[in-house]
Structures are given as structure tokens and as C-alpha cells.
Amino acid sequence: MADTDCLTLIKQRLSSMSATxxxxxxxILAEPQKVVSLTMRVLASETGVSEGSVANFxxxxxxxxxxxxxxxxxxxxxxxxxxxxxxxxxxDSVKEVMRKMRDNTVDALRSTCETMSESDLAAAVELLWGxxxxxxxxxxxxxxxxxxxAAFRLIKLGLPAVVVKDSYISSVSALxxxxxxxxxxxxxxxxxxxxxxxxxxxxxxxxxxxxxxxYADSPLARMCDCSLVAVSGEAVNSSSTLSGxxxxxxxxxxxxxxxxxxxxxxxxxRDEALEKQTEIVDAWGEYWIE
Length: 290
Description:
Number of helices: 16
Order of helices and strands: HHHHHHHHEHEHEHEHEHHHH
Number of strands: 5
Structural class: alpha/beta
Strand order of the largest sheet: 2-1-3-4-5
Oligomer: single chain
Low-confidence stretches: 239-245
Distance between the termini: 58 Å
């Protein structure tokens, strides 16, 4: 069984679960304290599934039976694991909304950090370093802001990054890539048609592919050579909540991944990064008011 706490593990895998498993998982995430005291029969009744489905759910997560799953849930709660994304409701005060957004953000950053493997991050760094000719960063809609920020951060490190935010231009630019290039897509769902199409073209042209998304089972994540998944309660509840549709907290979890990669590269190439930063500060000098 992995070291990842149980509730975080369920969040990480929820998007790739079957409909039956998602019903069980969503109930556990919404009522973890209650589930600890429930028998398997009662949980099955509460979620409208069979006892066998509950047992299979525990086994799929790597637990030796339902009792082991309940123990893991209790341990996760005692360790301070956040039970669930806290939805914003119409009756909430502005201050209460701020508190919920703070807690949701902390939970998303913590979960993303705990579930991201060292090997995936290392692979991402190697892909960025290995792109000798160009790094194309793609993002459409709300993801375009993240793509623009990521490209700018990479440029500041001296990497050959460009951002493409137009859905028509992106497919054309992908046609210009080759094996010395990296196509990096940023997409919340990983299911945006134009992004998936663009990455397919890039892959066909021999470019390496990487994505930052919130859905591990998405077409984009399955396609790419390296997929970095940000874990957020918004992805768990996105089908039924306004906050999920806005994907606000998930954006910060995706930024954590970008910031991590850039900070690591800057630390590994300290002298070069400092030299680039000095040049940038000098170039910007004329825009600042003394």
C-alpha cells in the first residue's frame, strides 16, 4: 500500500474510477467521519451499490478488505487529512467564502504535492532540458493564462519557450515541430478538442509531449509522454458545483507544478539563471518609476 493517505489517494484516483466506484468514493470523501463507523452493508445501502462493489472498491485501492479501508480513513483524518472540497454556497458570507477558498487551496496544494511522484517530476525536467529547438506551450480559454505564465517563466530561465493560445494557430504550429521540440499542454479537463488535436499532431511530428491537467484518465493525459496531474476537490465535484466549473483552486494547484519545475531548474542552473535575471532586470529598468 502506498504511503499516500487514504482520502488523498481516493481523490487522486476518482476521475479514473467506474461510475459505481465514484459513487462510493464521493460518499467517503463527503462523509469520512461517518464512514468510519459504518458497516459494509450500511455503506452499500447508503450509496446504492452491492456489498461486493464496496469490497472490490477497497481492493482496487490496495486495501485488504473493507475494515482495512476504514482504518486507513480514520488514520487519514487523525493525521489532519482534509475530508473534502468545501463548496461555496449562496448563503455564505464573503468572509466565509474566503475561508473556504483558503482551505480548499491548502488542500489542493497538499494533495498535489503528496500524490506527485518524484519520477514524474524528474521526467518533466528532462523533457524541458531536452527541448533543444523549441518548447511550445499550449492553453485555450482559462488555461491560456496559465500557459502564458508558464512560457514566460521558462523564457526567463533561458529556455526556448513560446506560448500559443489560439486554437487555429496551435494546430499549425504543431505541424512545425520535430524531435528536438517539446509540446506542453495545460488543460484543466484534458478533454478540450483543440488541445487534444494539437497534441496529436505534435506527437505525429515526432515532438515530445507533456501536459499539466487535473484528470489522470483524460485523453490528453493518456496520450502524453509525461502527464502531471494536479489534485483538487474541484475535479471531484466539477459535475455538480459552481466552484468546480470555475476551477479556481485547480488553477493554483497547476501553478504549483509550474513553479516547482521552474524553481528546480533555476536551482540546478543557478549561475545561468542569475545571469538571465540580471539581464532581464536591466532591460526592464526603463519601465520602472524611480
